[in-house]
């Protein structure tokens, strides 16, 4: 009996031992499976975090480049632009090419993984980016940096690390040690200065109310597209584009040898438009700031007079209360030296008026910019910069005080060879007269055209006129 009980107890203990071994074996196998899954999941999570952080670093770099472009555009209206930027590199050495550098404030956001974005921006002016017109293009270089969560380890797929150039110990570009694992991407923009790129541009609706209006183009720089730098009907081109930031162009059945653009709008009476008709246009019309000159020559704004120019780096400056040319009066702008180009700047604090056969003469080798604060009223049969290029006479209308309207009225049968830029001015052009002619470009807040008017856009103005904006001409990511 006792022996039987002992055998039964032994059997029960043996069964318990086998069960324990089975459980332990199951736990071991499950642990191994769980460990493999966990390790795989952590690698996948780390890889996903690296991918997301890598993508965010590009966003940071692009944001920095936008900051650089914004500051570059700011130079057109604000003399304090770049005043808070550094002129030295991180190691304290001066930046080449008149460079300016800014480390943007850190951006912080919520969510998993990386939450910090940094950007460092450099804007410089390499000498090789001076174009044939003598204009300086600019380079905007932005480094966007984000930070990798977790330990400084690559994922199982080493190709992923090679693709993304992550920095765990050192930056692969600079070979400098990093304080924490990070991803950095570099974008570089080339910014081109631009001027008057269209024959006519308005902010509000563009109304061309007469079928006798004719718009075309030429290029004063090219003998195949002009004669002695002047408009030649036999060489006329079809790049006389018209555009508006509004939703309406009433073309009035005018002959427009070029394209017509609205901002998500419509073009009516456009049967005689030779080029494209599109609705995807928008152009920021940069205001002209009021001059802040402290050194200038005060002159009368009426009567016969001759104003001479100076060198490009030191133009001769004149200031007048009003500019009034009536009767047979002639205002002449002349070169200040027997050779080379001369430059004149005129600040008119009041109105610009003409009547009769009064004229403005811009002599060869002379370039004139008129900064105008008042209204424009041009009548009569006078000529303005006749037998010359529009780029040599630029009328730049200063931004008026808030809630003050400004107008431009052009009538008569005269000839105006000029680039006219008044983004806050309401323009009425050619409403009277029978054969007004303009060579150049016209920009206004609103533009209404009528009568018999001929507009010949000089394509050279896009590259040689007063700089109204900077636009991105190339973008690439530096992956080297």
Structure description:
The protein is α/β, with parallel strands linked by helices. It folds into two domains: 43-194 and 472-478, no CATH class; 200-464, no CATH class. Helix content is 18%, strand content 34%. It is built from three helices and 31 strands. β2 (107-108) and β3 (116-124) form a beta hairpin. The mean pLDDT is 86.
In terms of topology, how is this protein built?
Elements lengths: L1 H73 L25 E4 L3 E2 L7 E9 L13 E10 L10 H7 L17 E13 L5 E3 L3 E3 L5 E5 L23 E3 L3 E3 L4 E2 L3 E2 L4 E3 L8 E2 L18 E2 L6 E4 L7 E5 L2 E3 L4 E5 L7 E7 L3 E3 L4 E4 L3 E7 L3 E3 L4 E2 L8 E5 L8 E5 L4 E15 L6 E14 L3 E6 L2 H4 L4 E10 L2
Parallel strand pairs: 6-9, 6-29, 7-10, 7-29, 8-11, 8-30, 9-12, 10-13, 12-14, 15-17, 16-19, 17-20, 18-21, 19-22, 20-23, 21-24, 23-26, 24-27, 25-28, 26-28, 27-28, 28-29, 29-30
Antiparallel strand pairs: 1-3, 2-3, 3-4, 4-5, 5-31
């Amino acid at each position: 009996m006792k022996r039987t009980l002992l055998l039964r107890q032994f059997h029960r203990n043996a069964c318990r031992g086998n069960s324990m071994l089975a459980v332990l074996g199951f736990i071991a196998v499950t642990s191994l499976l769980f460990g493999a899954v966990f390790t795989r999941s952590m690698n996948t999570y780390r890889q996903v975090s690296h991918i997301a952080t890598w993508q965010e670093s590009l966003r940071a770099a692009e944001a920095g480049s936008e900051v650089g472009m914004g500051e570059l555009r700011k130079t057109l209206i604000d003399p304090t632009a770049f005043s808070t930027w550094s002129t030295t590199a991180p190691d304290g050495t001066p930046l080449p090419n008149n460079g300016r550098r800014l480390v943007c404030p850190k951006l912080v956001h919520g969510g998993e993984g990386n939450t910090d974005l940094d950007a460092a921006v450099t804007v410089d002016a390499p000498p090789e980016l001076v174009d044939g017109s003598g204009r300086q293009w600019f380079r905007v270089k932005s480094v966007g940096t984000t930070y990798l969560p977790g330990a400084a380890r690559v994922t199982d797929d080493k190709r992923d690390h090679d693709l993304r150039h992550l920095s765990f110990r050192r930056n692969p570009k600079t070979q400098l040690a990093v304080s924490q694992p990070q991803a950095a991407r570099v974008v570089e923009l080339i910014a081109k200065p631009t001027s008057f790129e269209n024959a006519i541009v308005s902010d509000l609706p563009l109304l061309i109310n007469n079928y006798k209006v004719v718009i075309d183009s030429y290029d004063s720089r090219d003998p195949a597209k002009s004669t002695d730098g002047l408009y030649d009907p036999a060489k006329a081109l079809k790049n006389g584009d018209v555009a508006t930031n509004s939703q309406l162009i009433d073309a009035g059945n005018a002959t427009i040898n070029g394209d017509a653009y609205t901002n998500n709008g419509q073009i009516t009476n456009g049967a005689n438009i030779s080029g494209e008709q599109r609705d995807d246009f928008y152009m920021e019309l940069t205001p002209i700031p009021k001059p802040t000159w402290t050194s200038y020559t005060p002159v009368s704004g009426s009567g016969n007079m001759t104003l001479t120019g100076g060198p490009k780096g030191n133009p001769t400056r004149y200031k007048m209360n009003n500019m009034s040319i009536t009767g047979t009066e002639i205002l002449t702008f002349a070169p200040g030296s027997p050779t080379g180009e001369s430059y004149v700047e005129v600040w008119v604090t009041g109105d610009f008026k003409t009547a009769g056969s009064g004229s403005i003469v811009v002599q060869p080798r002379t370039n004139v910019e008129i900064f105008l604060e008042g209204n424009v009223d041009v009548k009569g049969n006078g000529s303005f910069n006749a037998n010359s290029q529009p780029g040599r006479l630029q009328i730049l209308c200063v931004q008026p005080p808030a809630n003050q309207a400004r107008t431009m009225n052009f009538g008569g049968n005269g000839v105006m060879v000029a680039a006219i830029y008044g983004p806050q001015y309401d323009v009425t052009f050619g409403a009277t007269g029978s054969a007004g002619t303009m060579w150049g470009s016209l920009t206004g807040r609103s533009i209404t055209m009528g009568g018999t008017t001929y507009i010949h856009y000089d394509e050279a103005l896009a590259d040689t006129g007063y700089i109204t904006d900077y636009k991105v001409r190339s973008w690439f990511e530096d992956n080297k």
